[in-house]
Specification:
Length: 241
C-alpha cells in the first residue's frame, strides 16, 4: 500500500466512525474499552439463581435456555458481525434498528441472532422470584386505558402468545405513545419495527417443553406468576418521559 492509499484508507475509516452513534474510537496503541451492549457481545448472567423461578419455570429449563440457546445467539452474532468491517464499535440496538443498512449476506444472521440476543437479554429481567401480581402506578393506568382492565390485557396477551404459530414471542409494546399487544415470529423484535418492547413472553418450545411438554397454555398461565412488573414499569416510565 502506498502512502497516498494509506491516507485515503484512514480517512474513510474516520468517516465511517462518525456515522455510528455511541462509537468508540480505536487506536493502534490502546484497545478500546467496550461498554455493555456493544460488540463484541457477551452473554449476560441471569439476575437470579437458576431455580429462583420454581415451580413455575424449572431450573433445568433455565440452564438450557440461558446457557445453551442464548449463548448460541451471542456466539453466532459475533461471528456474523466479524464479517463486516467497522471503523467503530456498535450497539445491539443500532444493529437491530438499521438491519436494511447492512450487507445482505449478514442481514439474516443479524436479524435472527441479534434479535435472539436482544430479546433474551430483556426476557431474563422481565421475570423475578416472587413476581407476578399486577402492575401499579402509571403503567397500570396506561394498561387500563388501552385495554379496559388488567384482566382484559392478560386475556388478550395470553391469546397472542397461544396463537403465535410455531416459534416466536408475544409482546406488550409502546408504539407512538400507545400500548399494543402483538406477536412476532422467530426472534424478530419490535425494536426493528420502531416500537419499544416493554414485556415479552418467549413461546419457543425450548422455553417450556421440559416442564410443560406441548401444553403452551399452562406455561403461559404459570409465567404470569414470575413477571417482574417493576422492571416493565421502569421501561415504560423511561420510554414516556
Amino acid at each position: 500500500m502506498t502512502r497516498r492509499q494509506a491516507i485515503k484508507t484512514t480517512a474513510l475509516a474516520s468517516a465511517a466512525l462518525a456515522t455510528l452513534p455511541g462509537a468508540i474510537a480505536q487506536t493502534n496503541s490502546t484497545a478500546p474499552v467496550v461498554p455493555p451492549g456493544y460488540y463484541p457481545f457477551t452473554l449476560p448472567p441471569l439476575p437470579y439463581a437458576y431455580d429462583a423461578l420454581e415451580p413455575f419455570i424449572d431450573a433445568a429449563t433455565m440452564h438450557i435456555h440461558h446457557d445453551k440457546h442464548h449463548a448460541a445467539y451471542v456466539t453466532n452474532l459475533n461471528k456474523a458481525v466479524s464479517q463486516v468491517q467497522w471503523g467503530a464499535e456498535i450497539t445491539i440496538e443500532y444493529l437491530l434498528q438499521h438491519l436494511s443498512s447492512f450487507p445482505k449476506n449478514v442481514r439474516t444472521a443479524f436479524r435472527n441472532n441479534g434479535g435472539g440476543h436482544f430479546n433474551h437479554s430483556l426476557f431474563w429481567q422481565m421475570m423475578k422470584k416472587d413476581g407476578g401480581g399486577e402492575p401499579t402506578g402509571d403503567l397500570a393506568k396506561a394498561i387500563d386505558t388501552a385495554f379496559g382492565s388488567f384482566s382484559t390485557f392478560k386475556e388478550n396477551f395470553s391469546k397472542a402468545a397461544l396463537g403465535q404459530f410455531g416459534s416466536g414471542w408475544a409482546w406488550l409494546v409502546l408504539d407512538g405513545g400507545a400500548l399494543k399487544i402483538e406477536p412476532t415470529p422467530n426472534q424478530d423484535t419490535p425494536l426493528s419495527a420502531g416500537k419499544t418492547p416493554l414485556l415479552g413472553l418467549d413461546v419457543w418450545e425450548h422455553a417450556y417443553y421440559l416442564k410443560y411438554q406441548n401444553k403452551r397454555v399452562d406455561y403461559i398461565a404459570a409465567w404470569f406468576n414470575v413477571v417482574n412488573w417493576d422492571f416493565v414499569a421502569e421501561r415504560y416510565e423511561k420510554s414516556t418521559a
